[in-house]
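Let us work through a complete example step by step.
Step 1: write down the sequence.
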Amino acid sequence: MPLGLRRKKKCNTKETSRLVEGEQTNAAGGSLPSLPAPTCRLVFHTQLAHGSATGRVENFCSIQELYAKIAGVFEISPSEILYCTLNTPKVDMGKLLGAQIGLEDFIFAHVKGIKKEVNVYKSEDSLGLTITDNGAGYAFIKRIKDGSVVDSVKTICVGDHIEAINGETIIGWRHFEVAKKLKELKKEELFTLKLIEPMKAFDMEPRSKAGKSSTGKIGTGRETLRLRSKGPATVEEVPSETKAEAIGKVDDLLELYMGIRDIDLATTMFEAGKDKGNPDEFAVALDETLGDFAFPDEFVFDVWGVIGDAK
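Step 2: predict the structure and record it as tokens.
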């Protein structure tokens, strides 16, 4: 399915420069007129979160392709990009780029910063960590529970990429695989995390915009570009980014536990649990609607955790 646009954008007469520092001008100093065109390419604006000129990216269908495009603009390796946030350069886990990008969203790429090695004593069964991943092989810390084991280790921060656990490299692992590895660590023992902080962002707004866009308009659209691991990206309306991300995680769990991927089934499971108050109610609802699948208890518990995070 071809990419589309919610609204027409002005096309510049010259697109030789990848970095956008301002409007083009003619010899007399005035703005060059926009040339009429039947279609315009879907272009997103981007900066490095710690500070850079504004670049433009287009023609991508997956997270991996987006990272490669951003890396090409700023002449860095795609492996340097930890994750992206939308409309803020801060390490804000509520603004993480997921499977959807609003057509007016501004993309900030967070790149590798300081490396650190931290020893943690697992005094409780739960470490108090919520793990997510960037969809391109890097898992990182999304949330730290107040008063938890990890909360007491102040060198561990939200947004840190987990590179290795007890010397075992976990690059390429999905978030649920990393969470399972941490959960399986023995209680009352010391373990070691190799972490990479994102390069620190400054409190700044995007330095330049395309056409007449303004800060007040950034991220206001409900229409989004949906990225896919296979096949073309599509422009579509989604109910909310949180719900869409949660359904994607349920689909990941289906693959991990059941060996299948089925976005419709994942959506059905999410809908069955979104209004339930506890995992027992959720388990009963699954038995009533999807009893033939005989889901294992651990799978049901993990899916409930995803739904709880979304709520």
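Step 3: interpret the result. The radius of gyration is 22 Å.
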